[in-house]
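lol ok so funny story. i was supposed to be doing the assay writeup but got distracted and ended up predicting the structure for this chain instead. priorities right. anyway since i did it might as well share w the group, maybe its usefull for someone
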Amino acid sequence: MISRKPHAFVQCSQHHIQMPKYKRLLIISDNFPLLLAFHKILVDKKADIEWKFVSSPFSDFTSQAKEAGLEVSKLNLRDGDVVEKIIEAYDLVVSIHCKQIFPVRLVNAVKCINVHPGYNPVNRGWYPQVHAIIKDLPIGATIHEIDEKLDHGPIISRAFVEKRITDTSLSLYNRILEKELELLNANILDILDGSYSVSSPEDEGVLHLRKDFDNLREFDLESRMTGMEFINRLRGMTHGDFRNLYFRDPATGRKIFVSISLTEEAD
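and the output, tada:
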């Protein structure tokens, strides 16, 4: 669905009228609650731009979107013809937890911006909240321009998120999502009219790939670690009902899945 909302960026004076820089926005997301919340931000801000929502082939929330009065189609960034159509049709692409890496052709032809659930450059890549807990790293949220590297481009806005001893991957992730929406709400108008400023990451930081997460899933029963390291491994790999961390039954070799529940003592 393409929506048009009027007059957000038209500022009249005696001498000039400032118009929005970008006219056609494509939002690619594999997180429906975030997509829905971003739609509300665009509507509340009365954004003077045409927009369309899509997901990658890894997600399907067509029915959820229909119930919410939205149309969300699928789009495959691995299809060269699809990429060319995006370049022809849009002048701004925003990724909100898209599970596909943007191809170089798209990044070099159209302004592309990413909303990342980590504090760049400390938490680049997959599942940053998991590594933040296990490795005791700071965590936050970042909006940045996309370049040819993963979660690497110039930073538009970022903020830290408090990490608590009672956090699991899920509780920390949910707080990061809240911070992402705060950053979007504060910066979306500047992004749409191209008036935002950027800063360069301090260094290359740390990049975690999907395989790094997969390597954390199996727990070696012969591992030697401190009690805190053990608890952090459990916390970092506990994400609601997802079966992430496991060890193998020495007798049968079958996987035994493990998670943790933390409750703080009441005052």
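Residues 1-19 have pLDDT under 50 and may be disordered. Residues 79 and 103 are 10 Å apart (CA to CA).
back to the writeup now i swear
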